[in-house]
Specification:
Elements lengths: L1 H22 L8 H6 L9 H6 L9 H19 L6 H15 L9 H7 L4 H13 L1 H9 L1
Helix pairs in contact: 4-5, 4-6
Length: 145
């Protein structure tokens, strides 16, 4: 009987303190139970914090974004126009291949410097593109298009 009264007194205390959960928890006056239950409070976010969850996780400054766009364009030109017969498309492929194969570090937007800025291994990416180009499966697909 004593345990039952103690439990109901505790339940009454919890009801009395339920208003405190809405306004916040005064950690100085809070007992152990209140502090333990505080982890279940709802988070309050301002719209900027909520919308930030939908933004790109990888933040790039404008210079790196430009370098990424240059690299992306080169890879797309390399893969899309690798087997092209049309003069313009063939030139785009050859320009992209020349840029990728050049190991010059002097030019700011060289393949090596772009990869270094984006924390990519230039030689690994270069080998992968060359392997893709020389793969018989991709050669057949390119000739068919």
């Amino acid at each position: 009987m004593v345990g039952k009264n103690k439990a109901s007194t505790h339940a009454m205390d919890q009801k009395h303190h339920s208003a405190d959960w809405v306004r916040g928890l005064d950690s100085v006056r809070a007992n152990f139970d209140e502090r333990a239950l505080a982890i279940f409070q709802l988070d309050i976010l301002i719209p900027g914090q909520f919308l930030a969850t939908y933004k790109r996780k990888l933040h790039m400054d404008p210079e790196r974004a430009l370098m990424f766009a240059i690299l992306q364009d080169a890879v797309v030109c390399f893969q899309d126009y690798a087997g092209a017969q049309e003069k313009r498309k063939r030139r785009l492929f050859l320009d992209a291949e020349e840029w990728v194969m050049n190991d010059d570090h002097d030019y700011l937007f060289s393949f090596e410097n772009v990869c270094a800025s984006l924390a990519l291994n230039a030689s690994y990416l270069r080998r992968g593109l060359m392997r893709w180009k020389n793969n018989p499966m991709t050669q057949g697909r390119r000739l068919a298009s």
